[in-house]
Each structure stands twice: as structure tokens, then as C-alpha cells.
Amino acid sequence: MLSFITELGERVKNSEVSGFAAQLAYFFLLSLFPLLIFLVTLLSYLPYTTEDILQVIEDFAPSETLILIRSTLNEVMEKGNTGLLSFGIIATIWSASRGLHAVIKSLNRAYEVEEERPFLMQIVVSMLLTLALIFVFFLVLLLPVFGEQIGFYISAELGFSRFFSIVWESVRWALTPFVLFVIFVVIYFLGPNKKIRCTSAFPGAIFASIGWVIVSYGFSYYVRIFANYSATYGSIGGVIVLMVWLYLSGIIILIGGEINALYQIRKGENC
Fold it and tell me: Rounded to a whole number, what is the distance in angstroms from the first to the last CA of the chain?
């Protein structure tokens, strides 16, 4: 295990994971607000509010980031632009797909392969991965916030007993981490320009799923208790916190890919 960690550290350094994570953070920052605008505009047709979306982000994001997101959303939505729905989805898919393209390049470097797929195929793969991430965001939003209402609806429509409601409460909280794991498996499986087994993506996906939650909670605690970015950066402190959080998230995702590649090399498998 010690030699594995040591070699992993060398691979992370040589593969320029920090540089690719910076690209990922930049494009995710560009896609975050269009995505939230799209969700808020979409929810205007449903009996839910902006706070329902922010409640999901609040569980992971640092407090300064949440303040920044809330103020920006309120400022944009007050303008009442009817074209926000279409703008949000187009801007989200474009900017997030560029971020996923950085993930693909990093995975190719981890597996030591060149990108030989046609440019159009690269775009298609990036778009598919982007749509998968958007799906996860919707699921993360639906299950914790709206899960209780969904359970009541299913129970009422199908005539299930109270036992179903008890089981559903347990399932809806366990399903979100599982779906997060599945999406990471898809990213690590489709991303590199190399045929790999689906199960070969499991180690990195497990690390990324657990690591992202731990890093998010840990960084949020650090910002709340120890750090004071506003004292250093003033009014843009919230932006800096958001960028650091996205950067750390990008590092976790890319290290997961390095773990998969190193694990296969250690086992002597043909990737």
C-alpha cells in the first residue's frame, strides 16, 4: 500500500493533475451559474423555490460560496429575462463539456495513450459525460429535497403500505451516493481513449465518491472555522472560496483516474 501511494504521488505530479484540475475548476465555474439559472427558471413552473436548490448545495459548499451563489441568483432572477431557460441549458452544456474535455485529456495521460478519436467523437463523449453530470445534479436535488413528496406520491398512486414509506426513506438517502459512484464509473470508463473493463473503473470511482464528500465537508469546515478569505480578498472572497472548492473537487476526480490506471498496471492487466 505504501509503495502504491508513493507511486501514485509521482504519477499525479508527472501527469500535471493540478494543471488539469485548474482547467476543470475554471470551466465548472462557468457552467455552475448557467446550470443554477436553468434549474431556478425551470422550477418556476413547479411548486418549489430557489431555496430548495440552495439547500442541496448548502450540504457540501462552504458558507461564503453559498452566500455568493444566492446573491448572484437573486440578482439575475430579478431581471426577469424570459430567455434564461434556453440560455442556461446551452451555456451549461458548452462550458461543462469543455471541463469534461480536460478530464478526458488527463485520463489519456494517466493511461499513457494519445487521443486518436475524431474531433466529433470527442465532442459527443464530452456531451454525454456532461449530460450524465447534469442528471446527477438533478438526482441529488430530487432525492434529498423532494424525496419525501415522491415517496408519498408513489405510495398513494400504487396503494403501498406504510412499510414502503419506511423503506423509501432509507433508499432515497442511500441512492444518491450510489448514483454518484455510477457516474464516476461512466466517466472513467468512457473518458480515456483505451478499451478498459467497466469493473476496472471501480477503484477510482470509489475513491472519487468518498473523497469528494470528505474534501467538501472538510474544506467547508476549514473555511467556517479557520479561514477568512474576505479579510484577504475583500468582496471577491466568495469567488475565491468557490474556485478553491471546485479546484479540490477536480483534483479528487482526476486522482481517481490515476488510481484506476496504476491499479491496472500493478495487476499486469492489458488496459
Answer: 21
Q: Which residues contact 107 (CB under 8 A, 6 or more apart)?
A: 188, 191, 192, 254, 257, 261
Contact status, residue 83 vs residue 244, Cβ threshold 8 Å: no
Other beta carbons less than 10 A from residue 152's beta carbon: 12
What single-letter amino acid sits at 262? L
CA distances to 127, 131, 248, 261 from 20, rounded to whole Å, are: 18, 21, 11, 17
> Cα(205)–Cα(114) distance, rounded to whole angstroms?
23
What average pLDDT does the segment 116-138 reach?
75
Which run of H or E residues covers position 83?
Answer: none
- Cα(188)–Cα(192) distance, rounded to whole angstroms? 7
Which sign does the torsion angle of CA 151, 153, 154, 160 carry?
A: positive
Does the pLDDT at position 255 exceed 90?
yes
Q: With contact defined as beta carbons under 8 Å apart, do 224 and 63 qualify? A: yes
Report helix angle 63-78 to 237-267, nearest 10: 120
Q: Are 162 and 130 contacting, i.e. CB atoms less than 8 angstroms apart?
A: no
What residue type is 151 in one-letter code?
G
Inter-CA distances, 168 with 55, 101, 161, Å: 21, 37, 11
| Cα distance between residue 196 and residue 263, in whole Å | 12
User: How far apart (Å, rounded) are the C-alpha atoms in residues 69 and 257?
Assistant: 30
Which residues have CB under 8 Å from 169's CB, separation 6+? 147, 148, 151
What's the pLDDT tens digit per position in 170-222?
Answer: 666 667 678 788 888 988 988 888 888 888 899 999 999 888 888 888 877 77
For 36, half-sphere exposure in the C-beta direction (CA atoms, 13 angstrom radius) is: 25
Residue ranges of domains in the chain: 2-267
Give pLDDT, residue 270: 46
